[in-house]
Amino acid sequence: MEIRQGYSYHIKDEFFDKVQDKYLMSNKENGNYRPHFYVLQDKKNQALYWMIPISSQVEKYKVIIEKRKIRKI
Fold it and tell me: Is this structure's pTM higher than 0.70?
């Protein structure tokens, strides 16, 4: 499969089964399935792609970000 920067992708369940990382966004969360991820290619290592989750819940994630900033202080 060719991955192209600027497109939206879904990640297969098999990836989450293999990786088992509690910090990754779940593929099946609260009855919702397969979040969309936006792809960016790394400038220094072009074999590396960053998968950024897309969400319409902007306010929810602003609160999460602010809480994490406070914890780091």
Answer: no
Token readout for 54 is 């897309």
Per-residue pLDDT of the chain (73 residues), as tens digits, is 788 878 888 888 788 788 888 777 766 666 666 678 888 889 999 889 888 888 788 888 889 888 888 876 6
d(CA 16, CA 13): 5
Q: What does the angle CA 9 – CA 49 – CA 63 come to, to the nearest 5 degrees?
A: 70
Q: Are 7 and 37 in contact (CB under 8 A)?
A: no
Q: Which residue has the tokens 């590396």?
A: 48
